[in-house]
């Protein structure tokens, strides 16, 4: 009987101490960011903010990588745009017009990404 009771005690996934809670469906502490758990209160208080911060930094790094990629594309499009020495867009070859539109689209992408950072 005692062995059965010990097997049912929920233990913290970090420190292996009893959590003092009933189970996942009840009030057990699981990280909402990564799903890890169960935690005792003290381990949860340490893990949850750190995990949330890591997730935020990962999302920011992905966004920054997207901005850097757009900036590289923007630079290449701007260089190609500068090489075009024609003033009348109606008479431009199709490839030149596509470069101009790509340049403008990338400029808007970078502007939007930078605006998100400010907010």
Mean pLDDT: 76
What percent strand? under 5%
Structural class: mainly alpha
Return Rg in Å: 27 Å
Sequence stretches where pLDDT stays below 50 over 5 or more residues: none
List keywords for this structure.
119 residues, 0% strand
Structural commentary:
The protein contains three helices and no strands. It is mainly α. The protein has one domain (2-118). The model has no long low-confidence stretch (mean pLDDT 76).
Structure summarized in a few sentences:
It contains three helices and no strands.
Provide the fold topology.
Elements: H1 2-8, H2 41-83, H3 94-118
């Amino acid at each position: 009987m005692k062995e059965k009771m010990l097997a049912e005690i929920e233990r913290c996934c970090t420190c292996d101490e009893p959590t003092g809670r009933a189970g996942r469906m009840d009030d057990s502490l699981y990280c909402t960011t990564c799903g890890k758990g169960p935690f005792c209160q003290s381990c949860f208080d340490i893990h949850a903010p750190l995990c949330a911060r890591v997730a935020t930094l990962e999302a920011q790094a992905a966004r920054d990588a997207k901005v850097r990629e757009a900036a590289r594309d923007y630079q290449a499009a701007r260089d190609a745009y500068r090489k075009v020495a024609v003033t009348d867009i109606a008479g431009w070859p199709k490839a030149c017009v596509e470069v101009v539109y790509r340049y403008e689209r990338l400029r808007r992408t970078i502007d939007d990404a930078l605006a998100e950072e400010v907010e």
